Each structure stands twice: as C-alpha cells, then as structure tokens.
Amino acid sequence: MTYSVVAEVRRGEFLESVHHGAVLATGPDGSEKVRIGDVDAPMYPRSSNKPLQALGMLRAGLDLDGPLLALSCASHSGEDMHVEGVRAILASAGLSTDALRCTPGLPIGEAALRAHLANGGGPTPLAMNCSGKHAAMLATCVANGWDTGTYLDPLHPLQTRLRVTVEELAGEKVTATGVDGCGAPLFAIGLSGLARAFGRLASAPEGTLEHRVVRAMNTHPEYVGGTGRDVTRLMRALPGAVAKDGAEGVYALGLPDGSAVALKIADGSQRARPVVMVAALRRLGVDVDADDTLRELATVPVLGHGERVGSVRAAF
Predict the structure, then answer these.
(1) What is the spatial distance between Cα 241 and Cα 256, in angstroms, rounded to a whole number?
(2) What does 196-240 look like in DSSP terms, one character per residue?
(3) Which pTM does this prediction carry?
(4) For the packed helices 50-59 and 191-203, what is the interaxial angle rounded to 10 degrees?
(5) What domain of life (predicted)?
(6) Residue 283 and residue 48: Cα distance in Å, rounded?
(7) What CA–CA distance (Å, rounded) separates 308 from 316?
(8) Contact, 180 vs 174, CB < 8 A?
(9) Rounded to whole angstroms, what are the CA distances from 114 to 61, 77, 85, 232, 246?
(10) What average pLDDT does this structure show over 63-73?
C-alpha cells in the first residue's frame, strides 16, 4: 500500500511527529469524498471484519439478537457484562468455556484489567477480547451440526461461509487468508471493499439480517467496545451508524444513508484512528462541532508534565 500523512502530532504548535495512512470516505451514491493513499490494495481489516462475520453467522442459522449479537461483533474490554454475555452465548448452545479456542488473553479495559489481576486472574480465552465472536462461531457450529473442535480451520464449513459473506458485502474477492491474533482466519480485502461493506450494512432495510446486526451494535455499543472506548462513544453519537475498530490502526464506519469510511494508520497506531475518522465524517457533511463526543474525538491530547500541551489532529 502507498500512504500519505493523515495526522499530525503537535507539541504546542511545533510539529513533532506524523502518522501516515490511507483513507476512503464515500457518499450515499458511492462517490468518493476523501481518497488518500492506495485504498484498493489488499490489507487485513482485523477486527473490523467482525460485523461481516456476524452477518455470515446469522445467515448460517445463528439465533442471537440485541446485546449478545453486539457482543458477537465485539473486541470487548473484558468487563463483567462481556464475560457473562460470552458465557450466555455458550450456554445457549449447550457449551462451556472449555470449547473456546481463542488465544488466552487479559481484559483490554483498564478497570477490568485491574480487577481481573487483583482477583488473581491470568490470561484466559474467556477474558480475551474476541471471545464473543468465538462463542458465536461455536453456537453457529452447534446449530448446523458442524464440528466444534476445528472451527478455526480456514476450510471448516463455518469459515468458508464467512469468507463468502465478506466477499459479497465487499464486492471483491479475498486475496489472502491469514491468522488473526485470536486464532480465527483473517480475510484480506481493500479499504474500498471494507467501505462498501459497511455502507451496505448500515443502509440495509429494516427486517434484513444486515439491519439486525447494525441495530444490535448501535443500540448496545457498550457490548461492542466497553466503557470509555471510542468505538462505543462514536456509535452513541451517531444513531443508526455501525462502526468497528481493528488492530493495526484499522477503522470502518457506515451511516444509515449508505455513506461509509474505511481507514488504516500505516504504523498501526491506535491514537490516530478516531482523529482521522472524525475528520472523514466532517468531509461527509456530519456536523462534528454540534456533538460533544465527536468534538472530543476529533483530537487526542499530547501531554507534558501531566498537562495538555498539544494534540494529535487530522492533516486533511
């Protein structure tokens, strides 16, 4: 991929660092409002793939809605509501936490991590931020009579169906399959395909499975991320929107009118993601300044001696 400067790090007004990236923002008719970098080159969407995978699971017979469906799309913080939700998904399929094959991990939410460690907890599959998706994958396997011990194999019936769903929504073929941090197969598409997919999800009519995914995530964004997380705050600020963050600086969002944003920060930094996302939303005509949350997400503080002395801000 080719990248351009998309964010600046200023200490005072002194330009200290920059973040390169690629960004695509499209209007309801698919017209490009922002195009920076090579948005057609294949990349791994990482956890931004999860809403697409959840749709594939619903199509394959998964019977979830509301908070638990939102949790199936999550990179959750590991709070009590998340852990209990994962247990509930597994129990609905007659499974225990022993069935989870995701990589053992610690909660990624600061408060949840402190509580987990204070209770003597270590890395577990249940605490891992992708455990909601894995629980939903297992429940889908049970609904179809598929083997639950090999559900992470790229050739497993579950994974082949999820790949088909990703390709359909993205409007392009997967060019590479890797292994995500949680152990699940990971499908490479372009940012252009990721934007198409999120625009199609967000604009799907009521009554469709696509709308079911969006409604669950937007109504229960705390299950998608967690307390204080930017993806949770972003969906609360934008009724009807669907958004999902991903590792290595990926972010995708769809609006109810079909507009969409997909971006990747080249160095994988998370701090520039929300800043660039809000700048792209502004270019789509969203009144960022009218909403306190969006206005706050538009910059990230740069600290000096514990005080704000500058900011990370968009460069476009």
Answers:
(1) 6
(2) HHHHHHHHPPTTSHHHHHHHHHHH-HHHHS-TT-HHHHHHHHSTT
(3) 0.98
(4) 50
(5) Bacteria
(6) 21
(7) 22
(8) no
(9) 37, 12, 20, 21, 23
(10) 98
Q: What is the mean pLDDT of the chain?
A: 98
Residue ranges covered by each domain of the chain: 39-268
- Distance between CA 111 and CA 93 in Å, rounded? 30
Side-chain half-sphere exposure of 265, counting CA atoms within 13 A: 24
147 CB neighbour count, 10 Å cutoff = 12
Whole-number Å distance between alpha carbons of 23 and 43? 13
Bridge partner list, 265? 21
- Per-residue pLDDT tens for 208-245? 999 999 999 999 999 999 999 999 999 999 999 999 99
Residues in the chain: 316
Q: Which of the 8 DSSP states describes residue 184?
A: S
